[in-house]
Specification:
This protein is 29% helix and 21% strand. It is an alpha/beta fold.
Length: 457
């Protein structure tokens, strides 16, 4: 609406109904409004000096969210063959392919060395459970056999090379073959110069030993960077020859700037583990030993004696006896309760050391368990609804019957649909499996409505 045309009409009406004296104070205001130049006012608003405009705020740096409860299982391989293996360090290539398929079937992500280091250094996150693959020494079959399998599955991997076995003929890899590994997703890292026991002085003086270690650690890395640095695949990590090292070797490796050093001690890697002694599961060629424990995140590195504790046995009369240790929820069971009470009954074991007990649970890491010395039960109440469909529990402890620490582990599954369909499915403090047949409720003590079932792994 045109203000210049409508205002006179409004003033006329006001004058007619109220009188000139009451309308007069508004005349000057109206005249001033009619005389305004809107374009000139707009230009003045635009004539703001640049220095008067405040700068935009600095972007807020978002710190990465790091899952410090994640665990990495690192596999260690050496040589490969198309025939039968008679050496634990040589693996049949079909067995290797089957193992890569097993990783895929288990839906375990395989991460690269760079991803692993970024996680350990708090830069980037990784999946909660994942695998890393390493191959030592530089045998030619790493290129001719293993590389094609790795490419087939699209898995990243790391080769640890020692200088004296690169491009020397025989079964060693050539420089070009190593470059092909880099192109196929391989990381190149150091395995020393001469592949000798780095803890052995062999009669060297303190100064001579230190100088020798310096060469083994530094010259090997320099050699890799000089010959393969342009591939972008060289990363400053180190694998101890034979997995043998001492405190001096560790300290010198750290001083030289190695981001991580790897052993042959089979264990899962946690975020807080010492970067200078990261464990690996070295897979044996004849027995395939260490591969299954490496993939077992539910039970972790379960000891063989620990498995026996969860297994039924027979007495001298041939009668079956219950396991020495029972667990709840039962191993391999399915429960609808997403807030279950985790229980391990150690009452049949003598001399359980309370301060030696630890418990880890998928998604929670190490948890603050409760140990009742009167009942012998270790327990932990899950504090928030479980999201994973499969849950693993690992419990470590010492007792009078074994000088070594025991580690037991088991898995159970969650039927989320039960919780979705009924609010009564999730009941803190309980751990019964779902769908217990009604006809057995009066025939066995463990299946009574108020009794808790026991099971073994």
């Amino acid at each position: 609406m045109d203000l210049s045309k409508s205002l006179p009409l409004v003033i006329l009406l006001l004058t007619a109904f109220t009188g000139c004296e009451k309308v007069a104070p508004y005349f000057d205001t109206v005249k001033e409004a009619l005389d305004r130049n809107a374009e000139e006012e707009a230009e003045k608003l635009n004539e703001i000096a640049l220095e008067d405009i405040p700068p935009p705020p600095d972007p807020v740096k978002m710190e990465p969210v790091i899952n410090k409860e994640a665990r990495v299982s690192i596999l260690g391989y050496h040589d490969f063959t198309e025939g039968n293996s008679s050496n634990d360090m040589i693996l049949n290539i079909d067995d290797f392919r089957n193992q890569m398929q097993a990783i895929k079937d288990a839906e375990l992500p395989v991460i690269s060395m760079r991803q692993y280091l970024d996680w350990k250094q708090g830069k980037k996150d990784i999946p909660e459970q994942c695998i890393m693959i390493t191959i030592d020494d530089g045998w030619k079959a790493t290129h001719t056999l293993a590389m094609n399998v790795m490419k087939e599955y699209g898995y990243p991997f790391t080769v640890f090379l020692y200088k004296n076995y690169v491009g020397v003929g025989g079964r060693s890899m050539t420089h070009d073959e190593i470059r092909e590994l880099a192109s196929a997703g391989g990381t190149i890292s150091s395995h020393s110069v001469s592949h000798q026991n780095m803890s052995s002085r062999k009669g060297k003086s303190e100064d001579a030993y230190r100088e020798w270690l310096k060469v083994e650690l530094e010259e090997s890395q320099r050699f890799l960077e000089e010959n393969f640095g342009d591939t972008g695949a060289v990363i400053k990590t180190f694998a101890y020859p034979y997995g043998i090292y001492n405190d001096q070797v560790k300290e010198m490796a750290k001083e030289f700037g190695y981001e991580a050093c790897f052993t042959v001690n089979g264990k899962k890697t946690n975020w807080e583990d010492d970067d200078m002694e990261i464990g690996r599961y070295v897979v044996h060629g004849t027995t395939l030993a260490n591969f299954d424990p490496a993939l077992n995140f539910g039970g972790g590195n379960v000891t063989s004696s620990g498995r026996k504790l969860l297994t039924e046995s027979k007495n001298e009369e041939g009668e079956e006896e219950a396991p020495l240790v029972t667990v709840l929820p039962p191993a391999n069971s399915t429960i609808g309760n997403r807030l279950p009470l985790i229980e391990v009954n150690l009452s049949k074991l003598e001399g359980v050391q309370a301060d030696s007990i630890s418990m880890r649970i998928t998604g929670f890491g190490k948890v603050p368990h409760v140990f009742d010395s009167n009942t012998g039960i270790v327990s932990y109440q899950i504090p928030q609804r479980l999201r994973a469909e499969s849950v693993g529990v690992q419990v470590g402890f010492r007792h009078a019957g074994n000088t070594e620490a025991e580690i037991i582990g088991w898995n159970f599954s969650i039927d989320k649909m039960k919780d979705y369909l009924s609010s009564e499915a999730t009941r803190p403090g309980e751990n019964d499996p779902v769908d217990v047949p009604a006809e057995t409720s009066s025939t066995t003590e463990n299946s009574r409505p108020n009794a808790k079932p026991t099971a073994s792994l």
